[in-house]
Amino acid sequence: MTADHLQTKLQSALWVGFGLAVVWLLATLGPILAPFLLAGILAYICNPLVQRLCAKGLPPLAAVLLVMAAGLALVVVLVLTLTPLIREETRQLVERLPDLLGLINDQIAPWLKEKFGLRLKVAINPATVRQFISEHWIGVQGLLGQLLDSAASGGQVLLQIVATLLLTPVALFYLLRDWNGLLARIEHIIPRRWHAQSVTLAKEVDAVLAEFLRGQLLVMALLAVYYSAALAIAGSDFALPLGLITGLLIFIPYLGFATGFVLALVVALLQFAGWEPIIAVLVVFGIGQVLESFILTPYLVGDRIGLHPLAVIFALLAFGQLFGFFGVLLALPASAALLVGLRSLRGVYLASRFYTET
């Protein structure tokens, strides 16, 4: 074994060890890194807008503050819109629960027995439930508040929430302000023999992420408008919050659609207007799924990512385990970037002597 070959083996072992150390560090510091990763994704999305404002003569600091203020205003509008509607929806759902029990006893249970021979009987008296809710609703609200206070007193959950709320905008500000400088520093430390290949790989990652993230945001907005309008036309109560929730959660594959569908189905069931609201919800979400899968996502997002459904599920679980709820949000864009690297490694492997030699 020559000295050069031994040195190559040693360098490979060091890089493998470095990669394993990075993976271990990410797994260990996952909850701490979540706000920084979220800020990185937001900075990547917002940076083109900052650059456009700077190109029009606005100072960089003013452009960053303007973009962050616009984002904050959007979040505030969403919170102010959704919070009262969700609170009112919860109150009405609780009030209508006794009627739902009566519907099950009087209509659904006889129909199931007649059609399928199934015996379904709700043992709880609806009148008793209605009386209990009217007498204890204030107490239930107080109990929920006590439970939230108790959960917060544990410290860990509250600390993570506060840290995320505080650190994400701070990290976002510095990332947006120093974005070009950070990229230049990263490019400068890349070994010269790997520089061209690394820059090419980074451009491929940028193309995939840009197509996915910006296209996905447009898909979310269009679906939020569609579900809100379609549910309103179908006569569904709380069409606006249901449409906004479904559209915003579409970013999380499977979970977003399932959450919106279940909530809309529960609302339709509690309207007690026969089968029409339930059928309307099924039609609206069926059309929405076709619209998302065959029209919006292929044309606005494209097939550049190419993740298998099982890979999507694994990515959601893995990133959720590492970084919590925000890991679920970051799973697909991060997986898209990793996929570009894996494709490059596959090309190197297929061209290597280890693979080609018989």
Write a structural description:
The radius of gyration is 26 Å and the shape is globular. The longest helix has 57 residues, at 60-116. It has helices at 3-28, 30-55, 60-116, 126-153, 156-177, 179-188, 192-233, 239-249, 255-269, 276-301, 309-323, 325-351, 353-356. The chain has a domain at 33-189. Helix content is 86%, strand content 0%. The model has no long low-confidence stretch (mean pLDDT 75). 18% of the residues are buried. With 358 residues, the protein is an all-alpha fold.
List its traits.
358 residues; mainly alpha
Mean pLDDT: 75
Number of helices: 13
Q: Please write the string of helix (H) and strand (E) elements.
A: HHHHHHHHHHHHH
Q: Which bin fits the share of residues in helices? A: over 70%
SS class:
mainly alpha
Strand content: under 5%
For this structure, the quaternary state is single chain
Chain-wise SSE layout:
Layout: H1 3-28, H2 30-55, H3 60-116, H4 126-153, H5 156-177, H6 179-188, H7 192-233, H8 239-249, H9 255-269, H10 276-301, H11 309-323, H12 325-351, H13 353-356
Helix pairs in contact: 2-3, 2-5, 2-12, 3-4, 3-5, 3-8, 7-8, 7-10, 7-12, 8-9, 9-10, 11-12
Question: Can you describe this structure in just a few lines?
Answer:
The protein is mainly α. It contains 13 helices and no strands.
